[in-house]
Amino acid sequence: MGYRVHQTASGTVYAHHRKNETHIWFSLYLFEHRHLDKEIKRLKARIGQLRHHLFRQEQKKEKLRRDIPSALFGSRSFFRKQYTMCKDQKSHAAWRHAFRYKRNAKMTISGRKDAKYGNFVFQYDAQSKTLHMKSINGQALVLPYVYFPYGQDRVQESIAAQLSCQNKKKYGQSMGWSIEDHDTYYIIKCIVEEPEHPHINYSKADGVIGVDVNYNHIAFSNVNGQGQLLSSSCLYFSLEGKRSGQITKLLEAEAIRLVDIAVQRNKPIVLEALDTTFSKSAGRYRNRKQNRRMSMFAHKKMQDSIHSRAAKMGVAVFEVNPAFTSQIGKMKYMKQTHISIHQAASYVIGRRGMNLKEQVPKVLRAY
Fold first, then answer.
1. Per its UniProt entry, which superkingdom is the organism in (predicted)?
2. Which contiguous run of DSSP H or E holds residue 206?
3. CA–CA separation, 211 vs 24, rounded Å?
């Protein structure tokens, strides 16, 4: 990037060269007021933003030196309610009781492969449907009729496999347990290792499902074996005002819908190998709307949900280079197929996953 002054027969010309473009002004007045003034204003704003960011980081640094960070079990918002909701000693005692109850309302114990039942604390008897538990003080507790409406067979198979491994003095598989206290009832969860589907479809002979993940929808395209577009659509969702747990459940539900479509078509899925770690931090000083959208763009979480569901349903997932997929889709296929730019990008991703050549045509590269 540089500035140059050219002397011509008609007068002085000021030029600004930057990469593949050049801006020209035919007088010093136009060069100063149309370019330099804007650049000075932009640089001053940028310097102010950097100074403010530096000031905030210095404040955080000083706070970390002065105060030791603490961990709070039972939610920090509920802990702060003692200062806003408690008006007297009785209400504060009620809050303390509720806070302690909330802190101790859930317990999760991970499993061990060398344990007889996959866990040293919990032992499940599949015949009598009872769960035996040993408390911290050594007291034995028995929870009668523990039955899982979904996955009971999987739990029994895991216990049988673990017992057979213990008889052969081999390591089996671990089993985790979780208990949640909801005052009038308990919820018991068993965590077992889920094996992968025995038959995973890697074949691209009949085509693929190209997927483009965005912050508020998933665009997908059904591509046949010759790389032609059969159909295209979107799965819409909204993350506005949702908590982290709600966002995870919502994205998992959309991943299930997408993988079910791939199972119906009997085709693998093609995703972008996109890493948003740097892009989220690099554009720190975008406008508020762009920053909000970028922070809500849970691409890694969506990728993990699709991979997990696809492995369970026997669908292969391929990842391709994401370079220029939106630009290629916009220039080559958006008008031709009458679809949106994100659906066109998913079409390009699908074709690229089938090893078909996809790049911007030479006649359109200037644009």
1. Bacteria
2. none
3. 43
Q: What pLDDT was estimated at residue 49?
A: 92
> How far out from the chain centre does Cα 227 lie?
29
Res. 294 pLDDT band, cuts 50 70 90: low
Q: Convert the pLDDT of each residue in 252-279 to its tens digit.
A: 999 999 999 999 999 999 999 876 655 5
| % of the chain residues with pLDDT over 90 | 24
Give yes or no for a contact between 119 and 176, defined as CB atoms under 8 angstroms apart.
Answer: yes
List strand residue ranges (DSSP E) for 111-255, in order: 122-125, 130-134, 140-143, 175-181, 186-192, 208-213, 217-223, 229-236
CA distance 62 to 85: 32
Amino acid at 240: E
What is the distance, to the nearest Å, from the Cα of residue 81 to the centroid of all Cα atoms in its chain? 31
- Is 178:107 a contact under the CB 8 Å cutoff? yes
DSSP string, 135-152: -TTS-EEEE-----TTTH
How does DSSP assign 110-128, residue by residue?
A: ---TTSTTS-SSEEEETTT
- Going by their DSSP bridges, the two strands 122-125 and 229-236 should be labelled as unpaired
> How many angstroms separate the CA atoms of 2 and 11, rounded?
20
pTM: 0.60
Q: Are 283 and 290 in contact (CB under 8 A)?
A: yes
- Yes or no: say if 180 and 105 are a contact pair by the CB < 8 Å rule: yes
Q: Please state, in angstroms and rounded to a whole number, the distance separating the CA atoms of residues 146 and 150.
A: 12
| Radius of gyration for the chain, computed over Cα atoms and rounded to the nearest angstrom | 30
Please choose, from the candidates 164, 166, 131, 162, the residue with its C-alpha nearest in 3D space to the C-alpha of residue 148: 131
